[in-house]
Amino acid sequence: MSLTDALAYVESLDILGMRFGLARMEHLLGELGDPHRAQPAIHVVGTNGKTSTTRLLAALLAAEGLQTAAYLSPHIVGWTERLVIRGEDVADDRFADAIDRVRSTVERLGYRGEDAVTQFEVVTAAAFVAVADAGVDVVAVEAGLGGRYDATNVLGGGRVSILTNVAREHTELLGETVHAIAEEKLAIAPDGSDRVVIGRLDGDAARAVPAIMAERRLSGWRVGTEIQGTETADGYLVRVADAAYPGISLGASGRFQRDNLVVAIAGAQRFLGRALNASHVRQVAADARFPGRLEVFGGAPPVAIDGAHNPAGMRALADSLEDVFPAIRPVAVVSVLGDKDARAMLEALVPRCRAVVATQSSHRRAADPEVVAEIARQLGAACEVVTDPEAALSRASVIAGNDGGVIVCGSLYLLTDLRAGLVATRADG
């Protein structure tokens, strides 16, 4: 099977990323030889920060001499971005071969109709196949949606279970309250597990997660107790249990990446059962760059793109804009999906921006940009509507001027529409 054929098959499938129940996924993997059991795993769930944390985990463990893989979702430009093996996106032929093996097994098992496999199930199964074939020592796995019924929840929590953070999202599937959402995410950890790592929690999450952990006898390390990150005159200092990692300078933009880094360091240390080499940690942090995570492209004006697509993510982005655009307020190019809380997202973004250009990503569920623009205007923003994303970026650049800046955000699908062009025409900032 060629990569073109593999992608055509994947894109022909139902895109729904979660089905209730894991019986089909477990059966499919069993028929494939249980590739998900070929190496130990670290399982990462949470509302935001999962991709960066998963990438950092793989890099930190690789620096300690392990052969690593990382499974991520969603992608921005291409499907092969979702699987990183030994620091590189999976090779086209390896990805296509894995998809072909899964497709053949699906067809042999006769999954169709209401029992048809989903797109995420197929890609996840193929990732496990490719990772097993690669013979790595550990795989860091990012959950797609929620936790309890996510297709990745065949790992039994992995050797370490990580919760990056919790906020309201996908309430139609995960529950209306932060407590309910936290329960769904923490469901990946087996009752009684002592190998749980918990990231920064605020508000309702700070009350819900400890209660759930106590009820289910979960324990481990939490940011704010066993895990600490502080600014010092010599750089960022991370403490995990009895280990200290001083003098860290993080290459990735965004203050929120510090939260992801401390969680990744704790997860790697928990996995190994020992402290990491501090110089390795500093090097991994310095080298960290993440596509679509406050990624900056040079030019006049510079353009930053960020995958913030929910209120919590947008607040984190807003808090980091002055680091990327010091002394100026950028022009925002925004598209959101129709099921997102656009008002809460714009409430965080608008005060930090000079103007907003509302646009519409190519995703079929993208909200009407006129609706987005009206909300932005109600919040006091100068706002224009330019439906085509590339034209919207051009218009925002004109409004910003050579001395200004542009931030593209609101939807990962908007980044998909624009990032390839930015890579081709601008230098990495």
Radius of gyration, in angstroms, nearest whole number: 21 Å
At CATH's second level, what is the architecture of the largest domain?
Answer: 3-Layer(aba) Sandwich
Class of the largest domain, according to the CATH hierarchy?
A: Alpha Beta
CATH fold naming of the largest domain: UDP-N-acetylmuramoyl-L-alanine:D-glutamate ligase
Helicity, in percent? 40-55%
Count of folded domains: 2
Q: Which stretches are poorly predicted, pLDDT < 50 over at least 5 residues? A: none
Question: How are the strands of the largest sheet arranged?
Answer: 4-3-2-5-1-6-7-8
CATH homologous superfamily classification of the largest domain: Mur-like, catalytic domain
| Percent of sequence in beta strands | 15-25%
Termini Cα gap: 38 Å
* Number of E strands: 17
Structure description:
- By secondary structure, the chain is an alpha/beta fold.
- The chain is built from 15 helices and 17 strands.
- It folds into two domains: 3-287, Mur-like, catalytic domain (UDP-N-acetylmuramoyl-L-alanine:D-glutamate ligase), CATH 3.40.1190.10; 295-425, Protein-Tyrosine Phosphatase, Chain A, CATH 3.90.190.
- Helix 3 packs across helix 9 and helix 11 runs parallel beside helix 12 (342-349).
